[in-house]
Write a structure and sequence with these properties.
It is built from five helices and ten strands; from the N terminus they run βββαββαβαβαββαβ. The chain has helices at about 35-45, 80-90, 110-125, 145-155, 180-190; strands at about 5-10, 10-20, 20-30, 50-60, 65-70, 95-100, 130-140, 160-165, 170-175, 195-210. Strand 4 and strand 5 (about 65-70) form a beta hairpin. The longest helix is centred in the middle third of the chain and has 20 residues, at about 110-125. It is elongated, with a radius of gyration of 23 Å.
């Protein structure tokens, strides 16, 4: 499992016209082989009348699923350039399908490589990139009257609260970077005058916009 990695922010598409051919890049976050292939099948159904639906993906907790497909274009001119763009962008859990509607002008091998690579790049630009960092998920149980105060201070201090559960107490689920659990516990203990109770609730990813 990655401790931190880059992936796309949101599903998106980008359309380019190159020498009268229409190229449509469809981008999705896919964390498993099944998600990647399901996305590909969906795009191929949506654009069943297209000349080609070429794709590439890198997915899995260890990038173990990597695949590309030229879908009838000359070998190495479509799927591989898309895959190269994903790899060079250092993205994981990402699938890109580039749909081509042929416009009547042949591009040649070099032209196809550039067209599919540019389409993939524009798709990523439209989707945006985030950095996902693995965090510990800590449960903090407090009385109802302490909720507003603790929640506001935690948010001000930059912590991410992913969920709340209401029973006889309120439990906040808070993400904290590995190794910083004690700092969070000390802060919550000080705010509540010792009336906070902590429990480990597994791990989860926090996301931040990525700026090169």
């Amino acid at each position: 499992m990655h401790k931190h990695y880059l992936t796309i922010k949101t599903a998106a598409k980008a359309t380019l016209e190159i020498n009268k051919s229409c190229f449509i890049a469809h981008v999705a976050r896919t964390e498993t082989e099944k998600q990647a292939l399901d996305f590909l099948v969906g795009i191929r159904k949506q654009h069943h009348d297209a000349t080609h639906n070429c794709f590439a993906c890198i997915a899995g907790s260890r990038d173990e699923f990597q695949k590309s497909d030229d879908d009838g274009e000359p070998v190495g001119t479509a799927g591989k350039p898309i895959w190269e763009v994903i790899r060079k962008s250092q993205l994981c859990d990402t699938t890109i399908v580039v749909t081509r509607y042929f416009g009547g002008i042949k591009l040649g091998s070099g032209g196809l490589i550039r067209a599919y690579g540019k389409s993939a790049s524009e798709g990523i630009r439209a989707a945006g990139i985030v950095e996902r960092v693995l965090h510990s998920r800590i449960g903090i149980d407090i009385a109802y009257n302490l909720l507003g105060l603790l929640e506001n201070i935690l948010i001000t201090q930059g912590y991410t609260i992913t969920d709340k559960r209401f029973t006889d107490l309120v439990r906040l689920y808070v993400l904290v970077e590995s190794g910083q659990e004690f700092r969070l516990q000390k802060l919550a203990t000080d705010i509540t005058a010792g009336a906070a109770y902590f429990s480990e609730q597994g791990i989860a990813y926090a996301e931040n916009d990525y700026v090169e």
